[in-house]
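Lay summary. Proteins are chains of building blocks that fold into shapes, and those shapes determine what they do. In this project we predict the shape from the chain. Here is one chain we studied, written as its sequence of building blocks.
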Amino acid sequence: LFAVMLGVSPVRRVRFDCPLNAAFRHVLAGFFLLVAGWQAASGILMYRDWVIWSSPTLQHAEDAPRVSALLRQGGNPIWTYQTDRILSGYPDLDEHYLPYTMPMYTRLVSYRPYPAPLIKLAVLQAISGRESESLNTAKLAMDAYPAYIGSLRGYLSSIEDERVQSLKSYVQNYDFASLSGAGRTGNRASQE
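And here is the predicted shape, written in a compact code that computers can read:
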């Protein structure tokens, strides 16, 4: 936008002198154009796949290659956000993907702390044996989104892994009502 405004400005043309050799400038400009073209072409190809892959088929044989491709593509920092967002929609990732999905959900929760990614991160933490982190993540999800506690309980009830049992009982017995309402407001008002 600045370049457009500078181009249509009524001010006399400003000349920028570059101390580099003209041939070197052409090679440098060509290199930048080549890199930008490569990024644009690869981005268009990946975007085409992402549109198709944004909804999982729930067929493990078809979804597993998609997850592998998305994890591979997510290694590029330019595409990490998009691939993390798509992967968060896949319900049950295999346990052998745990080393990849744990950092992915941790990143995803850092910039998109919604209830579904938070509870999925809590489940992954419970499966990997990090019980206290799992309970803290679930507490964060329930405190931040009390309207979704029923949905979180429903999601956890569908998981039949024994390692998630303490997380399930914690969420099932969690009572947000005792933390909200007049008691919480009254305490804050009395402190002010």
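What the prediction tells us: DSSP finds ten helices and no strands in the chain.
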